[in-house]
Design brief:
Largest sheet: 4 strands, parallel
Oligomer: single chain
Strand content: 5-15%
Strand order of the largest sheet: 2-1-3-4
Distance between the termini: 44 Å
Number of strands: 4
Number of helices: 15
Shape: globular
Helix content: 40-55%
């Protein structure tokens, strides 16, 4: 795992968490992913952890595999990262990023039935400064309170035992302690990750290279957002906004469908490959899925007022000067207005 920032004198629980995480990625594996040379049809999905990575992996893979004349999509994978590899962890999981990505039922949708010419998708948690230069990037963002709560619950029962670490300590000594990476073995904070990609999008001066998608918009209007993703990918391959592909991707990316197939979205590949290197039992965390309860806004209800204030302060310090938005809600509204304006042109 990337080296975590030393926040002073961590509690015993945080020290143990960081020790375990230090074995999650090897330096060779992480850097081989960050040094990857993308091809002209390679697309990356980037998020801060627990902001909608898995959901977007599924959407993109089903857009890719849902175009055949008789295709109903592809659920033949063991776990989603088998078909949409994680850049930083692929090497340590025995995956070669240069290999062809498995596609079942691809092609079609207004084009050839040969899957080998489909787009290739990857995921990363890297901020813009460390990410390889992909021709297209999909950035998924989510309310920071919900991200924090989801991240805490995801690690609970995997990297730390229930009842040994409070969410306030997790936030203060781990999540909020992150900032601007000092080297490529560190992950950016939620806030730095967000502004790095916001700046990259503005540098591009259009949405042809970088697409922002809000987790909450996926929840409120899945079909509309899948169409947005399809239109974005169609700038590389015009088949990707074909109605057949959109229909298949929407159906296979609903909360209900993914919850029913939760064991294919449970991070089992990384757990089986890296748990023992982290000092954990090989089956640690195997009972948990990355598909939560399908709700938004729960973080504000669960987090203390003091913790919410710390998050707001961090937002105003880091994100406001770059985006001009004093809250996540304002940023979401701004992005929606820019999208509406572009659609009306």
């Amino acid at each position: 795992m990337p080296f975590e920032v030393d926040a002073g004198c961590p509690s015993e629980a945080i020290a143990l968490l960081k020790k375990r995480l230090s074995g999650f990625e090897t330096e060779q594996g992480r850097l081989s992913g960050l040094n990857y040379k993308p091809g002209p049809r390679d697309v990356v999905i980037t998020t801060t952890p627990k902001a909608g990575t898995t959901w977007m992996q599924q959407i993109c893979h089903q857009l890719r595999s849902g175009g055949g004349s008789s295709s109903t999509g592809d659920m033949s994978f063991i776990e989603i990262s088998q078909v949409v590899p994680w850049l930083e962890l692929a090497h340590d999981q025995g995956q070669n990023l240069q290999d062809a990505q498995p596609v079942v039922g691809g092609g079609g949708g207004g084009g050839s039935d040969t899957p080998s010419d489909e787009l290739r998708f990857f995921k990363t948690h890297a901020w813009a400064d460390h990410c390889p230069p992909f021709v297209r990037t999909i950035v998924v963002i989510r309310d920071p309170c919900d991200v924090l709560l989801s991240f805490y619950l995801f690690f609970e029962g995997w990297f730390f035992e229930p009842g040994t670490l409070s969410i306030d300590a997790f936030a203060d000594e781990f999540w909020l302690a992150r900032g601007v990476p000092e080297n490529r073995m560190q992950n950016a904070s939620y806030f730095v990750h967000l502004i790095s990609w916001y700046k990259r999008r503005k540098d591009c001066n259009n949405d042809d290279d970088v697409l922002f998608v809000c987790f909450e918009d996926l929840k409120d209007d899945l079909e509309g957002q899948v169409k947005r993703v399809g239109d974005f990918l169609a700038t590389l391959d015009p088949r990707y906004n074909h109605p057949k592909r959109i229909q298949v991707a929407v159906h296979l990316s609903t909360y209900e469908f993914m919850k029913e197939h939760a064991d294919q979205f449970d991070e089992k590949l990384s757990k089986l490959a890296r748990n023992e290197a982290c000092g954990l039992p090989k089956d640690a965390g195997m009972g948990s899925s990355k598909i939560g309860n399908g709700s938004s806004g729960h973080g504000k209800l669960e987090l203390s007022q003091e913790l919410r204030q710390k998050i707001d302060e961090k937002w105003r310090k880091v994100v406001l000067p770059v985006t001009g938005c004093s809250s996540y809600q304002e940023l979401r509204q701004k992005l929606a207005e820019e999208c509406d304006k572009k659609s009306s042109i």
